[in-house]
Amino acid sequence: MNDVQHNGEIPPVRSAQDLVHMEHVSRTYMQSGTPQPVLDRCTLSFAEGRVHVLLGRSGSGKSTLLNLLGGIDAADSGTITVAGRDITSMTESELTLYRRRDIGTVFQFFHLIPTLTVLENVTLPRELDGADLAASRQSALALLQRVGLDDKADSLPETLSGGEQQRVAIVRALAHDPLLVLADEPTGNLDGTTGETVLRLLLELTLDAGKTLIVATHSHDILPYADHVYEVGDGSVREISIDEVLQHEQELQRKTRRKQQELRRS
Ligand SMILES: Nc1ncnc2c1ncn2[C@@H]1O[C@H](COP(=O)(O)OP(=O)(O)OP(=O)(O)O)[C@@H](O)[C@H]1O
Ligand SMILES: [Mg+2]
User: Fold this and answer.
1) 60 lines ligand 1 (CB under 6 A)
2) Residue ranges of the alpha helices (H) in 12-161?
3) Ligand 1 pocket mutation pick from 60, 219, 234, 237 by most atoms within 8 angstroms of CB
4) Predicted local confidence at residue 248, as pLDDT
5) Is the pLDDT of residue 15 over 70?
6) Structural domains for the chain
7) Using CA positions, which residue lies closest to atom 31 of ligand 1?
8) What confidence score (pLDDT) does residue 5 get?
9) Which of 130, 150, 132, 131 is nearest to 140 (CA)?
10) For labeling, which of 61, 173, 191, 198 is most exposed (least CB within 10 Å)?
11) Sequence-distant (≥ 6) Cβ neighbours of residue 230 within 8 angstroms
């Protein structure tokens, strides 16, 4: 089990290989005028170079957690350290650099910039960082070739299929050599076969580069590749075993069959 605790009941245990450590992190949103704690004093670590999968019902807080790790949103309290740096105490300009240099993100709806070509989308983070453009283009093209899209380098995103756009987004997430790759429902907008291809490429490219991947998903297709699985819900993030996930799935199947039989009888 990974060292996951909640509500500070167990003292945090740090491993030398942890890339991310969250301590007593809370995030509350106002919902219909009432404060709703989405994450409530969560303490957990994500080991470096591993595949971490976040499961949980819709609205449980998976995206909230990813947004905090990616420096898109700020925790109300608690600390988050990434590679030993406390991102919760960074200034806005430090956070901008953190997002640009250290994080690669893959979203459900691709989020490519429509007016830029595929290659320009991929090289943008490094270009903003003042990197050598020729070198950035060369490494971006090599990655585009790996996902079979080097011939689309000069195309605009709108001329690509959803699966192709997501392959570009995967390349964009990795091209600037980030510390951490965050993926929020990366296959949520794709059909089964396309989703499988995209997932395989995401895993291949991330693991080949030795990166840490944290994926929020409703799909269980990624579970065979997961090193750690967590259930997000009721304010907490709890590591669970794959067996627990499968047992839950079997229980759901049994319930569905019972309901079907009841409906047929009535
Ligand atoms: N900016 C916001 N303002 C108010 N409430 C928010 C905001 N962002 C998220 N929430 C609420 O926080 C809760 C967690 O949302 P979150 O998007 O993290 O869930 P999720 O697990 O990613 O769900 P899904 O599986 O549907 O993507 C939800 O109840 C949501 O309505
Ligand atoms: Mg979400």
Assistant:
1) yes
2) 62-69, 92-102, 118-128, 133-146
3) 60
4) 85
5) no
6) 5-258 (3.40.50.300)
7) 59
8) 39
9) 150
10) 191
11) 4, 44, 52, 53, 54, 55, 237, 238, 239, 240
